[in-house]
Amino acid sequence: MTIFAVKFNTDKQLMNHPIENCIGNTPLIKLKNIDQGKSTLYAKLELMNPSGSMKDRVALNILKNGLKSGKIKVGDTIIESSSGNMGIALSHLCAHYGLNSVIVTDPNSNPLNRAIMQNYGAKVVEVKEKCAQHGWHGARIDKVKSLMSDNPNMYWTNQYENPLNPNAHISTMNEILEGIEGELDYMFVSASSCGTLMGCLKAIKSSGSKTQLVVIDAEGSILFSDQPGNKVIPGHGSGNRSKLLGISTPDVKLLAKDEDCIDGCYRLLKEQGIMAGGSSGGSYYAATKFIAEQNHPVTCAMIICDRGERYLDTIYNSDWVKDKT
Ligand SMILES: Cc1ncc(COP(=O)(O)O)c(C=O)c1O
Questions:
Q1: CB neighbours of 42 closer than 8 A, spacing ≥ 6?
Q2: How many of the other CB atoms lie within 10 Å of CB of 170?
Q3: Are 186 and 252 in contact (CB under 8 A)?
Q4: Going by CA atoms, what residue is nearest to atom 12 of ligand 1?
Q5: Whose CA is nearest to atom 15 of ligand 1?
Q6: CA of 119 to the centre of ligand 1 (A)
Q7: 3-state secondary structure of 324
Q8: Which pLDDT tens digit goes with each residue over 158-217?
Q9: What is the set of domains in the chain, with CATH numbers?
Q10: Which of 55, 140, 169, 241 to probe ligand 1 with, by most ligand atoms within 8 A of CB?
């Protein structure tokens, strides 16, 4: 594994800076033995952000912007619907900025994620029943709205509609374009709120690069397909079409089944020594398959969205895997 671009931890001055300065500028590495050494697949290690995922960039962008504009003041309460990384990233930065956090989850959320949020100081509220029309996602959004109507001083970060979500990922894509050697042919991105996808798309378009954007959606998600279904791997995919999806769409759309994500996770661990979450496994599975199908060498990049330790009870537990797949 060759490390290509690590900026922050070589700069001694940053030792005196707050934790927020450690968000972004994550390492970009070249993965080993891709396409028998003919093609190149870079991996952006977003799992190395302080709270463990690429959502640190989004939480930072939204909170910093709100604090700067005065929409958010120290002591205010931030609320969001999330069962995973966004809730963790927000509760982490709320602790840092002196804000309170309320994270609305549902019964499917991982107890470890909740414990992490609670340790950062968040109040975790669980909805008990699905919304008839929009499932658990709808129930969580309804709960956020009802809590806000009781408390007008709450600020909803609203990752599913907030343009500061995709804007936070312009830097992710620019760091990749600046870090690679030569031209990038394909960029692989997984999607849920579509913040990463739309931010990367915007950065590619404004850089003038010919990079094609490949989205990896979960099988059962309705972001890019009309066939809703059950999926167990959290993080990527959605039962609701994100309002952030614009008119410009990805160049290539691929689907990853739960089994593909699990397979990709185990291969990432064995072949690259990286323990990551299910969406990263899905991206590795889809990217390596796609590369093998090309009839010429290609240069590609993917994102390692979050840390695998959060999935020790699920993806990395063979009993759970047997039961769920
Ligand atoms: C692990 C993981 N992968 C992928 C995604 C999708 O990212 P986005 O919401 O930017 O579409 C998420 C979103 O929460 C996630 O937690």
A1: 4, 28, 29, 30, 31, 176, 179, 180, 299, 300, 301, 302
A2: 20
A3: yes
A4: 235
A5: 235
A6: 22
A7: helix
A8: 999 999 999 999 999 999 999 999 999 999 999 999 999 999 999 999 999 999 999 999
A9: 2-49+169-324 (3.40.50.1100), 55-156 (3.40.50.1100)
A10: 55
